[in-house]
Amino acid sequence: MTCDAIDPEPTDTGWMSEEQKEDTARVTPLGRIGVPQDCANPVTFLCSAEGGWINGRLLRSDGGLGGQATHPRTRERRNPGCDAPTGGTMDRRRIRRSGGTAC
Length: 103
What we know:
The protein is elongated and about 40 Å long. By secondary structure, it is α+β, with helices and mostly antiparallel strands. The protein has 3 helices and 2 strands, in the order E-H-H-E-H. The N and C termini lie far apart (33 Å). It has 2 domains: 1-68, no CATH class; 70-103, no CATH class. Mean pLDDT is 75; it is low at 77-103.
């Protein structure tokens, strides 16, 4: 048995106004807002035999937003004053292990 999770970020499910969709698409590295199928495809893969070796992962379905070290609208660092590397859970674990702080 495996346990994984999908973190669906801006996805067009009917709750955003057209203006919000356009603003979000403008700051998303892929240049568009997600659609439900963008979240369903990785779930299908993780549930298949091909995804059977993947376990305990959080997969961000966010069009690249999570990979940005700066805030997409202002281009300022997400965590001003923080010299810790940005990234995912693994970066936070490495920082914690080394005695540093994660911001």
